[in-house]
Amino acid sequence: MNFSNNKTKIIALHCVAWLVIFSLPYLLSPNYSDNVNKDPDAAAFVTLNTLTGIFWVITFYLTVFVFVEKFIYPKKYVAFSFTMVGLFAAIMCGHYVLYRLLIPHPFDLIACFEYRLPTFLLTSAIGIAYKMLTDRNNEEALDKEKKEQNLKTELSFLRSQISPHFIFNILHSMLAMARSKNDLLEPTILKLSGLMQYMLYETDEEKVRLKDEVEYLQNYVDLQRQRFGNNVNINVSMNVADDEHEIEPMLLIPFVENAFKHGVGMMENPFIDIALCLEKNVLCFKVDNKFNPLRNEIKDKTSGIGLSNVTRRLNLLYPEKHNLSINNDGNLFHASLQIILN
To answer: Which pTM value belongs to this model?
Structure first.
């Protein structure tokens, strides 16, 4: 059933299967030729059995394409039973006509019934099983495809949430520089241009190089460092050397954005610590920041999108391959993430 979705190949496979089935009695009988030569009626019976085999082919495909859909799935078992009795009676009539044309001996109805009924029941049962297993296989394949498409759609939607959130924060940083007529505004614009290029052209890929994602984070931190200067103690340690591991794009930036959003402002000795390292195939990422729980700030409408977004993406992309811990002890916000990378 998993051979191919190509109809021509499926038909060819069925033809080969029936050819093997019809050939088995002769392949398993080493004295077939001798028996035919000794018994003048043997050849006639071989022809009769071969022609009767066509009835089993008809029974199989009627069961597969008609009876299961019309009777089994709707649970019309009584109607199915009467239909099968009628079909078997028709087969017996057909067999009787062939017998009278080919065999010069009297027809034994009881012997024929006992000989043909088991084959009829077996063929019908195989047809039912084949149809139900094939439909189940097709449903599972379709369900898998739908889940994959839904996953791609959901991930695309989640990414689209990240990008405006990021741009919103950076533009606020540039606005502050423009108001203070900071000479770093021009290089900041150039850095933002580089970040936008990464975000527009690289994040369409399912995976990006880890070192490119780290460079993206570093540029973002540099922009924020230019904005806050010495007002915020920013400690960054991110080093993956020339490692070729890959990661989902824009997966780590929400933690950094959150730290700069809530870890600066009206508080004593604000600080932000960011650490990233790679131990074999495990990415370890930590972000700590101080915050003021008494600070009664009216949050913007996008508050909280970042972390809830990344939590959802981690569950979709790295099921059972990540560990996320977010703690808030009242004055310190701590986020720790470990991901097993391929």
So the answer is: 0.54
Mark whether 325 and 176 lie in a shared domain: yes
pLDDT tens for the 342 residues of the chain, in order: 444 457 888 888 888 988 888 877 666 666 655 555 566 666 777 778 888 889 999 999 999 999 999 999 999 999 999 999 999 999 999 988 988 888 888 888 888 888 889 989 999 999 999 999 999 998 888 778 767 766 665 666 556 555 565 577 667 777 877 888 777 778 778 877 877 777 767 666 778 889 888 988 888 888 778 777 788 899 999 988 767 889 888 888 888 888 888 888 777 888 999 999 998 889 999 999 988 776 545 444 444 456 777 788 888 888 889 999 999 887 889 999 999 987
What domain range includes position 29? 7-143
CATH number of residue 281's parent domain? 3.30.565.10
302 to 100, 108, 150, 327: CA distances (angstroms):
86, 86, 24, 21
Cα 10 from Cα 1, distance rounded (Å):
8
- 1 in a structural domain: no
CA–CA separation, 51 and 98 (whole Å)? 8
